[in-house]
Amino acid sequence: MSSNASFSAGHSHLTASHASPSPAGPDGGLISISLFILSDVRLLCEGLSSCLARQECLRIAGHGDLATPPEQVVDSGAQVLLVDIATPQGLRQSAACRALAPALKVVAIAVAEAEQDILACAEAGVSGFVLREGSISDVVAAVHNAMRDELLCSPKVAAALFGRLALLSARTVTREPAAGVDTLTPREHEIIRFVGEGLSNKEIARALRIRNSTVKNHMHNVLSKLQIRRRGEISKHLHANGAAASAPSRIQTR
User: What is the pTM of this model?
Assistant: First the structure.
């Protein structure tokens, strides 16, 4: 089934008439879209890399398994992340990458044809998806659609998405505003744990073996999510909302 075509009961491979046109620049030339591919299945990862590299409008910025540091994905300059979500780690990795680079588009591959999996992709901020029986043409089309901020789906999936949106809206009306702690990524939880221990940005970067600029980006995201202005207010904010700044995350992003 194609991720950018309507769902149907029978076969759903992308046909030539559904293929997305290659993006063109002001001078009429093709614009190259850079991709990074993540999958624990080496054959899938290298096979996709080889096939997509032959597409005139695509460029492979890198590929790796799901243990690849998010910083490596972001530093590659990729515009689109193709991530295998056959395991939960796929969505966790995509969330960690988007936390560092919000403009990064994520296209999930190997998605099961199940409402819960589609909704999980939507809630993770995925820009597009390709089902397990999808073709290379489906992947190419999903990449182009993601770059145009478009996602075509069946009436069934659209109804599920609207249903989830209505449920979330109802919950927002009836509960107190969230403290923002539950929106932090595993890496951000690590950052605030070190902040609670009094470490500077440089010391945190050294402890996590990441760049100082990356720590600054994480801190910016934390302050934004917690809706506070200064890092010195983090511990006070967390304790006021029943969370402990020193509690380490049990989910590893690396």
Answer: 0.56
